Recover the amino acids of this structure.
């Protein structure tokens, strides 16, 4: 009797070929278009998402698909996969290796599984609700840090926060023991793996958030909006990831002033 392929195995297989595809385009000449919000998109974004869609249609035909580049297919279905083919297209375009591939699996709007793949680093993080998280197959967990003064803090989209929330920015740059400015999904992956203690992020779409939140929470962390509210399937905007409830409360105090 042939064993059924698990959802985690499907997700791992998707991450593998999506990473291989993006590496074929990385640091090579690309055609670049700009969407209505001025975010860039390349043939790599489209090719990777199309390949993921083809795989899901073949192997999980009763599941829906929501991708950054081609929208929603099967919106009414209970089971939904959310795809960000290249998280950090600006990083990708500039040859920066910290672009990612994001994939989330939802049931009735609730994330049950998330993937953060870093193609240029050959890293794949997978988190499953109630079952923990792994990095390249090895278990990972968030740190036990509870004190903001001793924490490693990453600030994503710092220039946007500075421009639109100057007071928040001023408080953030005085918080934590170590601060780094960054972009995209990798700081959240570092948090899930226990290297970073808190990540403040801004101006995100659902396909940026759902996989990240699933991995971080499976690793034992907390992801909410800046007011501490849980994230819904369609949420877009600002988020914060933290390793412990104590640190989460502390960073919410910083954000609220």
């Amino acid at each position: 009797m042939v064993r059924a392929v698990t959802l985690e195995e499907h997700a791992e297989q998707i991450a593998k070929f999506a990473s291989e595809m993006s590496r074929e385009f990385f640091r090579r000449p690309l055609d670049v278009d700009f969407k209505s919000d001025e975010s860039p998109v390349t043939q790599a974004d489209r090719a990777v998402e199309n390949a993921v869609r083809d795989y899901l249609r073949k192997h999980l035909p009763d599941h829906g698909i929501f991708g950054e580049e081609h929208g929603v297919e099967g919106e009414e279905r209970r089971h939904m996969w959310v795809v960000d083919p290249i998280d950090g297209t600006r990083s990708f375009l500039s040859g920066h290796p910290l672009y990612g591939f994001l994939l989330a699996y939802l049931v009735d709007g609730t994330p049950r599984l998330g993937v953060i793949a870093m193609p240029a680093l050959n890293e794949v993080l997978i988190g499953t609700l109630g079952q923990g998280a792994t990095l390249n197959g090895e278990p990972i967990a968030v740190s036990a840090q509870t004190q903001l003064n001793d924490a490693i803090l990453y600030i994503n989209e710092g220039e946007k926060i500075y421009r639109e929330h100057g007071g928040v920015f001023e408080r953030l740059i005085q918080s934590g023991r170590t601060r780094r400015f960054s972009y995209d999904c990798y700081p959240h992956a570092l948090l899930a793996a226990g290297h970073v203690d808190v990540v403040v992020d801004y101006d995100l779409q659902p396909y940026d958030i759902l996989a990240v939140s699933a991995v971080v929470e499976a690793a034992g962390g907390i992801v909410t909006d800046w007011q501490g509210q849980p994230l819904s399937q369609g949420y877009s905007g600002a988020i914060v990831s933290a390793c412990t409830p104590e640190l989460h409360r502390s960073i919410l105090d910083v954000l609220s002033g």
